[in-house]
Amino acid sequence: MLDPSSSEEESEELVEEESGKEPLAPAAARLSPSRPGESPGPGGGGGGGGGLQPGGRAGGAARPASPSPSVASEKEKDELERLQREEEERKRKLQLYVFVMRCIAYPFNAKQPTDMARRQQKISKQQLQTIKDRFQAFLNGETQIVADEAFINAVQSYYEVFLKSDRVARMVQSGGCSANDSREVFKKHIEKRVRSLPEIDGLSKETVLSSWMAKFDAIYRGEEDPRKQQARMTASAASELILSKEQLYEMFQNILGIKKFEHQLLYNACQLDNPDEQAAQIRRELDGRLQMAEQIAKERKFPKFVSKEMENMYIEELKSSVNLLMANLESMPVSKGGSEFKLQKLKRSHNTSIIDMGEENENQLSKSDVVLSFSLEVVIMEVQGLKSLAPNRIVYCTMEVEGGEKLQTDQAEASKPTWGTQGDFTTTHALPAVKVKLFTESTGVLALEDKELGRVVLHPTPNSPKQSEWHKMTVSKNCPDQDLKIKLAVRMDKPQNMKHSGYLWAIGKNVWKRWKKRFFVLVQVSQYTFAMCSYREKKAEPQELLQLDGYTVDYTDPQPGLEGGRAFFNAVKEGDTVIFASDDEQDRILWVQAMYRATGQSHKPVPPTQVQKLNAKGGNVPQLDAPISQFYADRAQKHGMDEFISSNPCNFDHASLFEMVQRLTLDHRLNDSYSCLGWFSPGQVFVLDEYCARNGVRGCHRHLCYLRDLLERAENGAMIDPTLLHYSFAFCASHVHGNSHHMAELLGGSQPSTDGEGGKVSQSSAAEVETKKDSKKESKKRKDSKSQPNPEPKRPDGIGTVTVDEKERFEEIKERLRVLLENQITHFRYCFPFGRPEGALKATLSLLERVLMKDIVTPVPQEEVKTVIRKCLEQAALVNYTRLSEYAKIEGKKREMYEHPVFCLASQVMDLTIQNQKDAENVGRLVTPAKKLEDTIRLAELVIEVLQQNEEHHAEGKEAFAWWSDLMVEHAETFLSLFAVDMDAALEVQPPDTWDSFPLFQLLNDFLRSDYNLCNGKFHKHLQDLFAPLVVRYVDLMESSIAQSIHRGFERESWEPVKSLTSNLPNVNLPNVNLPKVPNLPVNIPLGIPQMPSFSAPSWMAAIYDSDNGSGTSEDLFWKLDALQTFIRDLHWPEEEFGKHLEQRLKLMASDMIESCVKRTRIAFEVKLQKTSRSTDFRVPQSICTMFNVMVDAKAQSTKLCSMEMGQEHQYHSKIDELIEETVKEMITLLVAKFVTILEGVLAKLSRYDEGTLFSSFLSFTVKAASKYVDVPKPGMDVADAYVTFVRHSQDVLRDKVNEEMYIERLFDQWYTSSMNVVCTWLTDRMDLQLHIYQLKTLIRIVKKTYRDFRLQGVLDSTLNSKTYETIRNRLTVEEATASVSEGGGLQGITMKDSDEEDEEDD
C-alpha cells in the first residue's frame, strides 16, 4: 500500500511547520472539556504535555502591540477559544478517520451496492450559459447543423420556454438539473409537435423523432469530440458505481480534511494492509462491546426509554448485535485473496456467546481439524564438480517431495550441466523433505538403470530463504567426484490459514511437557479459533496443539533453569501457562504480535525494547531488532498520532461521530459533479453501513440524522429526492411506532438484511419498492390494516427499544417535514420545474400522506389529505399568479426599453396629447386603456402557458391520488379567478363600443373550450357573461352599418367591374353612418381589416383580382358578411344555445342583405336599359354585365352565407334562391326585349318597301334610274350589316363579361327565339304581298347570319331549327324563286340556299 519511508523527511518537516503555525493547539487540546460518553484512551493526554509555553510566547508577543490591555486580552481570549475549537475539531476528525479507515480496510458487514440508480452529471451555472450560447448560435444560423423549419421552431420554443426560464436557473442552483433532464424535457416537448405533423410516405414519426434528438444532441454537445465525452462519461460512471479502497481513502480524506501525510502515518501505524491485524482489532472491539454491555447492565446506566421494560431488552439487543457481528466475522475467509482454501466453521449454538467458546467441553479442536496445504517450487539451476565424466556424457536431475510424485529435468551434457528447471509440488507436511538427485546415463549394454552421482535432501519452511543457494551433494564412496555442488532454490508458500511459523523452545503443563525445540505453526481454523501446533518432519498432522481461546500472551523475562532460547514469552490461562522462547528478539516480537491477534485479548503486549526506549532520553533511533510495524508505530507516536491509533473505540460516542461523518459526507456528495438529490454514492453507502454495523450506531438515530441534514439542505434551496425522504421517514416511523409488519409490506418482503444496529438497507432498492407500494397498493393497505390485528412490536432493524430522545426528535422532524412538503406542493412549479426530477411530485404527495398518518397502522382519511393538498394548491394559485404578474411587468418594461425606444416614447407622448385633449383627468397618465388591454392579452398568454405546463408536466400526481386531477382543476379555476380580477379591471377602462378586446376572448376561449375540465367552468362562464353583451352590440352595429352602406353604395354605384377598381380598393371608404366606433370594413385586403379582430379575407376573395366580377358595393357587401360570419364563427362560442342564436341571426341578416342587393340591382338594370339606344348602334354596356355578375355572386354567396341546418333557415335560403332566379329571368327578359326592339326597328325600315305603297314605287324608280349611270350598292345591305354587327358585338360582350355560362345560354336561346318570332310575325303580316327585292335581300342576310351566329354561340339545333325558323326559311325561299323569275338575277347572289354554311363573300 502506502510506504511513507520515501517521503519521511519531507513529512516530518511538514509537521514541524504546522506545529509552528499552530502553537496554541496543544494547550487548546488540554483545556478542551471531554465529551459525554468519551474517555481518553491510552496516551490520550500525550498531546498536551508542555504545550503551554508556546501558547505563552504567542500571547506575550501580541501584548506589546495592543493599545489597551483589556481589549488585547479579549482578542487573545477569542483567538484562544477559536484555536481551541479548531484543534478539538481536528482531533475529532482524525479520530473519526481512524475508525473510517478500519471500516474500509476490513469490511465484514457491508458491500458496495450495485443496484443503485446511476446519477447523471449535473449542470452548473457556467455550463447552463454555455448551453444557452450553443442554442442561440444554432438559432442564429452560426452552426453547420442542417434543420428544417419545424425543428427550428421546436428549438426556438425550447430555448424560450425552458432554457431561459428562471425556474431552470433555480433548479441548476439547487444542484438538481442534469443533462438528462434537459434532454427529456426537449423530447417531451417535441413529441406532440412531431405527432401533429402530416404523414409523409416512407418517413415514420419515430424516424423524425430520432433525427430531431440526434440534432439536439449535436447542438447540446457543441464542438466537443463525442469520443472524448463518451470516454469521460464512462470513467465517471465507473467511479460512481464501485470504488477501490484507495479511492475510498482519498474520498474520506477530502470529506474529513485529512492531509495526505497524516493518512500515510495512520495507515502504516494501524497496519491496514495486514488483514490479520484488522481482524484481531475487530475481535478486540467486539469483546469490548460485550464488556460494556455487561457494565451497563451492572451499573444500570441506561438511556431514557419510552418504557421501563425496554431496559432489559436493550442489553439483549446489544449482545445480540455483537453476536451477529461475531457470526459475520466468523463467516469471513481467513484472508481476502484468491486462495482456494477456506476456513472450517466451528459448530456452535446460536444462543451461545462467542466468549464461551474456549470452555473445555465445547468446540475442542482435534488434530484432524488442523489442515495445512503448502505449495513448493523447486528450481534446479546448475551443478559444479563433474570432473570425472566425459564432456559429452548426458546428465540430468530428479526432484521429489517425500510422499509425492517425482519430476525430472531436461538432459544436459556434463561439460555444461545447467537447467533452470522448475518443479511445482503440493504437500500437507509442515516440514517436508525435498530430495534432489543427479544422474548420468549408463553406457553399458546390460545396465538397467542410470547411475546416481549424488543427492541432496532439504527440509524447507515458509521462513526459509527464497533465493537460490549452493548445496553440497552426498555422493557414494566409490564416486570419483566427491566435491559435487548443486545450485537450487526451494520456495515454500505460506497458506492463508497459517499466520506464523518457526522453531521455538516450549514447555507447558498439559502440552509440550518437556523443554525442547520444536517447529511451531500458528494456525487459524476460523475467525475466532486459533491453534498453536508443533510438527515433526514428514508429518501432515500436528504432533501436539494448543487451542488459544482464552489465553493471554505477553513478554516475559528469561526463566531460570530452562536452557535454550534467548527471548522468552508466555501464554497464560486460568490454571495453565505455556512458556516459549525464540533465538532472537525480532522473532519473539513477531510471534507475540501474531498470537496477540489470535487471542483477541484487550491487553496489548509492549516489547521490553520499546519500554526501554520510552524511558531513555535519547530514544529516537529505532531498535535494530524491532520489526517494521514497530518503526511505523514509533513514527506515529512522534507525530502525535498514537492517541488516535491506540484509543479504545468502545469509549467513544459513535452516535455523535457518525452524525458528524454523515453530515460531512452529505455536504461532499451535494457538492460533487453528480445530480445526486441527496442520495449517497455506492462507496459512501458502503462505508456508512459498515461504520454503523461495526460501532453499534442505531438505525433510527442514523436516519433521524439523515432526515435532519436533508431537511436543512432542502429548506436552504437544495433539491432533495422525496423518495429518499420517504424511505428514511418510513424507517424511523416503523421503529418509533413498532410495526414491522407494515414496513415489511411496504418493502414487499424484499428488504435487504440489516445489521441489527445501523439499519443497513440499500438506498435505491428499498426506496423504489417503498414508493411503488405506496402509490399502487395504498387503498389495499388501508383495508388490510383495518381488518388485521396489531402485530407484535418488532422494528424493521431488529431493534425493539425506543429512546425518548428518538421519539422526540422524530416528532420534531415529522413536523418539519410536513411543513416542507406543504411548502413544496404550494411551490410545485418552482420545486419541480417542468416535472423534474421525474416522479418527484408523485413521491412528495405520497410522502405527505405518510407524514399525516398518526401512526403506521391507522390510515389517514382521504378527505383530510385532500383538504391539506387543496389548501396548498389554493395558496399555489396565488403564488403562481403573483410571480407571473411580476414577470409580465418586468418583461413588458424590457420590451418597451429595448424594442424601438424612440418610437415607444413618441407614441406615449402622442397618447398623452390625445388624452389631454379629450379628458383633463387623464393628464400625466402613461398607461392608456389600449396599453392595459395589450398587457392583459400578454398576461393571458402567460396564464395559458402556465396551465398547459401544469397539465403537461405536473399531471403525475394522479398516479398517487385519483382525485389529484380534480384538485388541479380547482387550482386552475382559482388561478384563473385571480386573473379575472385584472382582466375585469382592464376591460372596465376600455372606451365604449370598441372591439379590441375580442382577441382576448378568442385567446382564452380557444384554450378553455379545448380543455375538458375547464370548459364551461366558473371562469369560462364569467368570460361568456362578460363578452356576450359586447358580441350582441357588435352584431347590432355591424348590421346597421352594412345596411346603410348598401343603401348609400348603390346610390353612388357606377357599376364598373371590380377589376377596374382593384388599384383603388384600399382607398374606398364606406360611410360611417354616424355610429360611434363602428368598424368601417373597407376592402383592404393587403393591410388587413382595421378595428375588426381576427378578420381575414375570405378564400374566394383571391379570385377578385384575376377575373371580372360584380360591382364594388356588392363585393364589399359579400366580403363584409363573410368576414362578420367568419369572425363570429372563430369566436367558437362555447354555449350552444347562444352560439346557434348568433349563427341564425347572421344567416338571416345575410339573407336580408342579399335580397336588398338583388332588388336594387334589378331596379338599376331596368333603369340602365331604358337609358340606352334603340338602334343598331346599341352596344351592351359593361354595367349590364356587371349586374349579371352581381346576380352570379349573390347566388354563390347565398349558398355559403344563408345556409343552415335547421328547416326554417333552409326555407329562408330557398326564398333567396327563388328571388335570384326570378330576378335573373326578368333581367334576361328585359335585355331580350331590348334586342327585339332593335330588330323591330330594322324591320320597320324594311316596311317602307312594302308593295303598293307610294314610298316603295318612288324608291324603286330612283334606284333603277340611277343604276343606268352609276354603280349603285346592293340595296338594304347597310341595314343588314348594321344589325348583324350589333348582334355579333352583343354576343361577344355578353360571352366575355358575364361569368355564368348558364345565364348566357338562356339569354341566347331566348334572344334567338324572340328574334325569329318577330321576323316570322313580320312576314306573316305580309302573307298576301310579294316582298320587295330589297326586303328579300335584307331578310335573307339577317336570318342567315343570325342562324349561323347563334349556332356558333352554342344554341342547340332543336332551338335553331324550330318551326318558326322553318316557316321563315320556306317563305324566303319562295320569295327568292319568285324574284329570280321576275327580276332575272336581281338578287345579285343573295340566296337562302346553303344558309348554314359560311358566306365568306359577305363577311
| Major beta sheet summary | 7 strands, antiparallel
Measured as a percent range, the helix fraction is 55-70%
Please tell me what the overall shape is: elongated
Number of strands: 16
Task: Break the fold down into its secondary structure elements and pairings.
Layout lengths: L7 H14 L3 H7 L20 H11 L6 H37 L19 H15 L9 H15 L2 H8 L5 H18 L8 H17 L4 H16 L3 H12 L3 H10 L5 H25 L10 H21 L43 E11 L9 E8 L4 E3 L3 E2 L4 E10 L6 E7 L10 E8 L10 E4 L12 E9 L4 E10 L8 E11 L2 E7 L8 E4 L4 E5 L10 E7 L2 E7 L2 H15 L8 H8 L12 H11 L3 H5 L7 H17 L11 H14 L3 H17 L6 H16 L2 H7 L16 H14 L1 H10 L16 H23 L1 H4 L8 H13 L9 H37 L2 H18 L10 H25 L3 H4 L3 H25 L9 H13 L7 H34 L60 H20 L4 H35 L11 H20 L5 H40 L7 H14 L9 H21 L3 H24 L8 H20 L4 H4 L2 H21 L20
Helix pairs in contact: 2-4, 4-11, 4-20, 5-6, 6-8, 8-9, 11-19, 12-17, 13-14, 13-15, 19-20, 19-21, 21-22, 21-26, 22-24, 22-26, 22-28, 26-28, 26-29, 29-31, 29-33, 31-33, 31-34, 33-35, 35-36, 35-37, 36-37, 36-38, 37-38, 37-39, 38-39, 39-41, 39-42, 41-43, 42-43, 42-45, 43-45
Characterise this structure.
By secondary structure, the chain is α+β, with helices and mostly antiparallel strands. It is built from 45 helices and 16 strands. Helix 13 packs antiparallel against helix 14. 55% of the residues lie in helices and 8% in strands. A 7-stranded antiparallel sheet has the order 13-12-11-10-16-15-14, with helices on one face. Strands 2, 3, 4, 6 and 7 form a 5-stranded antiparallel sheet that branches. Strands 5-1-9-8 form a 4-stranded antiparallel sheet, with no helix packed on it.
